[in-house]
Amino acid sequence: MAVSGAQQDGPEHARSGQEHRTATTEQGRFSVARCSCGWRGPARRARSQARTDAEGHRAGL
Ligand SMILES: [Zn+2]
């Protein structure tokens, strides 16, 4: 399928050739965003916040 028009919806920004797969894990009462590249976000009380951290990590690459 041909998608015309640049949509900023792809996490495929493989600039360094490294894959960034983010996930949130629970640490006690906190949620932490983690990435396959080794990055780790701060502990958050809300999982939604940890998700935002993960999205920010990928977007900021
Ligand atoms: Zn990463």
What does this structure look like?
With 61 residues, the chain is of the alpha+beta class. It has a domain at 22-59. It contains one helix and three strands; from the N terminus they run E-E-E-H. It has one helix at 47-59; strands at 22-27, 30-35, 40-44. A three-stranded antiparallel sheet has the order 1-2-3, with helices on one face. The chain is elongated. The termini are far apart. The model has no long low-confidence stretch (mean pLDDT 83). The structure holds zinc ion. Zinc ion is lined by residues 20, 35, 37, 39, 57. Zinc ion (ZN) binds at residues 20, 35, 37, 39, 57.
Bound molecules: zinc ion
Count of helical regions = 1
Number of strands: 3
Share of helical residues: 10-25%
As a percent range, the share of strand residues is: 25-35%
Q: Which structural category do the helix and sheet elements fall into?
A: alpha+beta
Q: Taking all residues together, what is the mean pLDDT?
A: 83
Q: Can you list the strand order of the major beta sheet?
A: 1-2-3
For this entry, what is the oligomeric state of its chains? single chain
Rg for CA atoms: 14 Å
Biased composition (Basic and acidic residues): 10-23, 50-61
Region (Disordered): 1-61
